[in-house]
Specification:
By secondary structure, the chain is an alpha+beta fold. The chain contains six helices and ten strands.
C-alpha cells in the first residue's frame, strides 16, 4: 500500500491500546473496591452476631470461615484478572523513541550520555542555525521597513484573458531597493575608512547577489579579506601584502591560510572578534558587526610600532604585540605577556 505513513499506523495502534488500558484500569478499580466492601461488610456482620449471641459464641464456625475464604478468593481472582488485562494492554504499546513528534527539538528530551547516534549534538546545531536564520530574517524585515515603509508597493502587470488585455494588480517587494540600501551602508563605511589620514583602501573584489568579497588594505602592514552576506560577516582572514589571493586557475582562493605565522594568528583573532561582535549586537543594528570588525582590523596599522602594555617592549620572541582586546583596542600585549 503506497502513501501510508508507518509512524501514523503505529501511533494509532498505541492510541487504541492506551484506551483499552484505561478501560481495564476502571474495571480494576471497581473490583478492588468490591474487595474492600466485602471485607468491611464481613467485619460488620461478625460484630453484630457477636453482640447478639454473647462473647462465648463470638468465635467463627468452620462453615462460616470456608464461605468467607471462598468469596474472598473469587474477588481476588477478579482483581488478578483485571490487573493482567491492564498489564497486557500497557505492554502492547510500542515505544517510539525514533519518531520525530515535534521537529528535531523532541530529541532534546533524550539522554545526551546514552545517545549513540549524536542526535542531541545535531539538535543543538540545528537550533543554532535556526537562531541565525531568525537574525537574518529580522535584519531583512527591518531593511524592508526602512526602504519601503509599512505598506508594500503596488505594481501592475499585463494579462490576457478571453482575448482581452487587462491590468492585474500584484503586491511585491522590490529587491533592488534593499540591495541599494545595503550598498549605501557599505559605501559609507568605505568612505569613513578612506577619509582617515592613513593609507587604508577598501574595495569589493567580487559580488554575486547579496554576497561580497571585500579587500581591506591596512596601511603598509597587511591586507584583510572579508566575506559578506548582506551586512553580515561570514568569514575573515588576513594575509601579507605580497601574498596572492588566487589559485593556479585564477580563481579566488578563500581556504589557503597565510604563509606567515603572524598573520595566521591575527586571522584567528579576527575570527574570534567576528563571533564576539555578532553575539553582542542587537537585532536592529545589522551593520554593527561589520563596523566593529573593520575598526578592529584597522587598529593593526601600527602593529610594528605598538608597545606591550605589560613589558613595554615592541618585539618579544620575534613577534610584535599583536594581541588586542576586542573593545579596548589600545591595550596590546605579546602572547607570552597575556594574563592567564
Amino acid at each position: 500500500m503506497t502513501g501510508v505513513n508507518p509512524i501514523m499506523i503505529q501511533s494509532k495502534a498505541n492510541y487504541e491500546f492506551a484506551m483499552q488500558a484505561l478501560e481495564c484500569n476502571k474495571q480494576l478499580r471497581a473490583t478492588v473496591t468490591n474487595v474492600f466492601k466485602f471485607l468491611c461488610n464481613s467485619n460488620i456482620s461478625e460484630d453484630k452476631s457477636g453482640e447478639e449471641s454473647g462473647a462465648s459464641t463470638s468465635e467463627p464456625t468452620p462453615q462460616r470461615s470456608s464461605t468467607f475464604l471462598q468469596n474472598f478468593q473469587e474477588l481476588l481472582s477478579a482483581v488478578n484478572k483485571d490487573f493482567n488485562e491492564v498489564e497486557k494492554n500497557t505492554n502492547s504499546i510500542t515505544p517510539t523513541y525514533d519518531v520525530i513528534i515535534n521537529l528535531p527539538m523532541s530529541w532534546l528530551s533524550l539522554d545526551s550520555t546514552s545517545d549513540k547516534l549524536y542526535r542531541y549534538r545535531d539538535t543543538v546545531q540545528i537550533q543554532q542555525w535556526f537562531r541565525r536564520l531568525n537574525e537574518y530574517c529580522n535584519s531583512t524585515m527591518q531593511c524592508l521597513h526602512k526602504a519601503l515603509g509599512e505598506k508594500p508597493r503596488q505594481t501592475f502587470i499585463g494579462s490576457r484573458h478571453a482575448g482581452r488585455s487587462r491590468k492585474v494588480p500584484i503586491i511585491k517587494y522590490l529587491q533592488l531597493t534593499t540591495e541599494n540600501l545595503v550598498c549605501s551602508h557599505i559605501k559609507n563605511i568605505f568612505s569613513q575608512i578612506t577619509r582617515q589620514p592613513h593609507s587604508h583602501t577598501a574595495e569589493v573584489l567580487h559580488q554575486a547577489g547579496c554576497h561580497r568579497f571585500v579587500k581591506l588594505t591596512i596601511g603598509k602592514t597587511c591586507a584583510a579579506y572579508i566575506i559578506l552576506w548582506s551586512l553580515n560577516v561570514e568569514k575573515v582572514f588576513v594575509k601579507g601584502l605580497d601574498e596572492s589571493i588566487t589559485d593556479g586557475d585564477e580563481e579566488w582562493d578563500l581556504e589557503t591560510p597565510s604563509q606567515i605565522s603572524l598573520y595566521r594568528k591575527i586571522s584567528n583573532l579576527a575570527t574570534a572578534a567576528m563571533h564576539q561582535y555578532a553575539i553582542n549586537r542587537s537585532p536592529g543594528q545589522a551593520e554593527y558587526q561589520f563596523l566593529l570588525l573593520v575598526r578592529f582590523l584597522v587598529s593593526y596599522r601600527t602593529l610594528f610600532a605598538d608597545q606591550c602594555t605589560f613589558c613595554k617592549k615592541i618585539m618579544k620572541d620575534g613577534l610584535p604585540a599583536y594581541l588586542r582586546d576586542f573593545y579596548r583596542l589600545q591595550e596590546t600585549c605579546h602572547e607570552t605577556c597575556q594574563p592567564k
